[in-house]
Amino acid sequence: MKNTINLIQTWDSTHITTALAELKTDKALENNIITRYESLLKAIGGKTLKSLVDLPKKWEKLNNEKKAAVIKTFPADAVFFTNILDLNAKLRVDAWRDSHYSHQIPNSLSGISNLKNVTELHVENQQWETLPVEIGEMENLEVLNVSCNKLRELPDFILKLKKLRVLNLKQNYSLKTIPDISQLTNLEIVDLVYTDVKMLSEGFFNLKNIREINTAQSDLDKDTAIMRRLIKTFPNAEIYTNARKAIELEDNADEDEFLNKEKIDISEYNLNYLPENLFRANAVKYLKIRCWNLKELSDNFDALQTLETLNLDIGSDVATIPSSIFRLKNLKELTIKGSGINSLPDNMEGLENLEELELEHLQIKALPDSFKQLKNLRSFKIKYGTFDIFDAISGLTSLEKIELEDYHTPFIIAAPLTKLTNLRELRIRANQKITDDIFHLPKSIKKLKIRDDTRRDKETKLSLGKVLNHFNQASELDFEHIDFSDISEPISPNNCLNTLGLDYAKMTELPDSFSNLTNLTYFRMFACSLEKLNSVLYNCHNLQNIRLSNAKFQSIPKGISKLQNLEHIGFECSDIETLPDDILDMKNLEKISLENCPLYKNKDFKTLIKKKIKGIKIMKGWYD
């Protein structure tokens, strides 16, 4: 019996065929062997011992669920038929770009510890949060690839794999720690790409056989001190890191590196500390620092008194802005982006020539009192702010431009902004309702863009005529998610407005007085609610661009040829089936955008209009 089993467990088809021939003369032995392999036969869908012939080839055709069943039932005293066990799941992406997995194996691999001869185990894309404990018993394992899972930690039983040479942990995005793997003295390759591992044990640096380490895009890669030590400790190893340039910058001691340069751009993701020689720049006027892993900012900025523009984009680790920045007397433009910043020093009055200030993602609770001393400030932009600005800016009468995007503080217009008599541009993406206080804004505004982001309740409702008449000196008016269905107040004659956007406006028709917008060149309505297109629009003779997406009407009235300046018209995602015949008389028309519109499929229309209007393009999207 032993000899027959040995022949079968070579997993060689010729040897198995020989063993089966011998069994034909000994039914009792055949039954005993069938009993031995009964579970294995069931796992591969076989009914007789003949099913074991070419088992390695059949194995490759099994899905991972059946492979797991084979592993579970494989005889503990048998040699597995392959040394490289590949149980990778397939990562697929469907038409909606929604990642999903197929052919996964159970989270437990019962029986895998019996496969003593397996030297490589590959289990990618399993979405495992923990490793099956059985892996720790695979005493001959040399390669362990558990990349693209959801591991949160690497269990200590991994230390039992004394023969391990390759440990691949990449794309386990939640993996934050690994144990002291210095006991794995045979380790040659460690891959930590796209993990959250922040520290390595002291013992890691004692591994003598390391020849490759990959830390790119990991949290380790963001720490130049650790990466500097890895490079020094393993001089003969291939270390794949994005931190080399950052290390070179930090360690650069060349005093002349930045001398006589008027423009300096330090955009290095992995940089932890600004190079000291930067603050010996004697002629710099423009300085951009885009380093999301800085640990701190030096307080030596006042050495750069030639600076006129400073752009800081510094990630989340820096909590305070050095006061030396606010002693730059020649600074005209200042941008500060950093989600870790929770305070600003109260010496902003030192920026006596500052004209433009942009703050993004700051976690400050209020602007310092010294902000009110920025008497030359002309432009102020806040993105993702939660602090009140209105009282602080009320005395800054030089302000010409205010831009608030995703601004979360209650939006109160009346008192503070009415004092800004020089205000020319106001852009707001508000999370508070826009009320009639909008009519307290200065009539001198030239550009106004307001988006109401409070759509979970009823949208802001305003009179279209009243808004247009109040801002009758504006050249650009752009509104989003404001209900302009009230068109009872007539629009007064207006020869200033060039651009008008009324997205999600809930207007079912254009008022007759719309024709008083005599200088309108661009008109846009996303999510158009018009039930028909009023021919009054054709009286706006200067129109060059009309864009009405999601329109529900199927045709537009004749007379469009009055718009002889029209260059581009768009009806994306609309029900338009026909256009009036006189559109063929519009010799300046360059593009018609008809994405997801019935007319786009009309070949006769395309042929005719291309014949009549030389060079015209029938496009899908507006920007095609």
TrEMBL record:
Pfam families (UniProt xref): LRR_14, LRR_5
Domain Disease resistance R13L4/SHOC-2-like LRR: 105-225, 331-436
Presence of keyword Repeat: yes
Keywords assigned: Leucine-rich repeat, Repeat
Protein name: Leucine-rich repeat protein
Domain of life: Bacteria
TM stretches of this protein: none
InterPro entries: Leu-rich_rpt, Leu-rich_rpt_typical-subtyp, LRR_5, LRR_dom_sf, LRR_domain-containing, LRR_R13L4/SHOC2-like
